[in-house]
UniProtKB/TrEMBL annotation:
Reaction(s) the record says it catalyses: thiosulfate + hydrogen cyanide = thiocyanate + sulfite + 2 H(+)
Organism the protein comes from: Enterococcus pseudoavium
Listed GO MF terms: thiosulfate-cyanide sulfurtransferase activity
Name of this chain's protein: thiosulfate sulfurtransferase
Family annotation (InterPro entries): Rhodanese-like_dom, Rhodanese-like_dom_sf, Thiosulfate_sulfurtransferase
Signal peptide segment: 1-18
Enzyme Commission number(s) from the entry: 2.8.1.1
Keywords assigned: Repeat, Signal
Phylogenetic placement of the source organism: Bacteria, Bacillati, Bacillota, Bacilli, Lactobacillales
Amino acid sequence: MKKVLTLALLTISFILTGCGNTNNSTDDSTAETTRAKTSFTGEYIVDADYVKEHLDSIILIDARGEDAAKKGTIKEAVPMAWQYLADVENGASGDENWGLVLAPKKLAERLGDKGIAKDKEVVLFASAQEGWGDDGRIAWELLAAGYQDVKMVDGGFSALKEAGLKTNKTGTELKPVDVNIEAINQDHLIKTDELKADYDDYKIVDVRADEEYDGEVLYGEAQGGHLPGAIHVRYTDLFNKNGTLKDNEQLTKLFEDAGLSKNDKIVTYCTAGIRSAYTQLVMDMCGFKNVKNYDGSFYRWAKVADVEK
C-alpha cells in the first residue's frame, strides 16, 4: 500500500507544480509600523513569531510534503502533503472520488499514524502565493474532521526561516496516536451532485490563474474553461509581494469588487480543491460565512459537465 501511495504522490507532484505570483500586490518596503496596522488577522492565521514562541506546545505541519521538505524544512515540522489525506490511489484525476476527502475511518487512521492529535493546536505552513494553498487545504480538511484548534502561518515557510527557526532536510516524526473521526462536517464542503442540483443558488468563484480560467489545459483536465458564470478571483491576488496575506479590508474589497457580498451563498473551486480551500478559509475570516469549497473542483466538473471559455 505504501508503494502505491508513494507512486500516487509522485505522480500528483509532477502534475501539480507550483504556481507563480504574476499579479499586483503591496510594496515590500512598507514600514514596520504600517505593516502592523495592515496585517491580516483571523482565527485561522498566526505569524511566524507566534510559531517561534509556541513551538514546544504545537504540532507544526509542513503542508508542502516530503519531497519539498527534503530540500529544506523547519526542524520541528511534520512533512505531510494534502494528497496523503485524499483519495488519490484509485483511478485518475476527474474520476468520481479521485482527490476527495478520505472517509472518516481512513482519514483518522492516516492522521493517527502521523501523530496529529485532536487535542493539540495544529499549525500548518506552505509556500504562500508561490504554492497551491496546500496548508489551507489540510487546515480546511482538519476543521471538517472535527479538529478545534487549527492555524496557518502567514507568509509560510519563508516567513518562518526569516524569523530564525532552525531548518533541516527531514523535519520530524511524531509518535502515532489514536484519532477518532465520526463524520466529515459538510458545512463548508460541496460535491458535484449537490452543486449541479443547486447551481443557481450559488455564486461560483474560480480562483485559478488567468490561463486556466481562459481555457488552457495545463494539468490534465478533461477540457479547458471554467464553470458557467464563474467569477474570477485569483488565489495569488490574496497576497502581498512578501508572501503575507493582504489585510482584511483589502481582501474584503477584492471580493466585493468582484460582485460578492457577505450574504451570498458562494462556492470556491480551483483545479483539485486546494487553492480554493485556502480561499474559503480567508473569505470566512473576512466575514463571508456562507462559502463552500468544491471538493473535486475543475478536475471533476470538466469530466462530467459543461464549461465556458
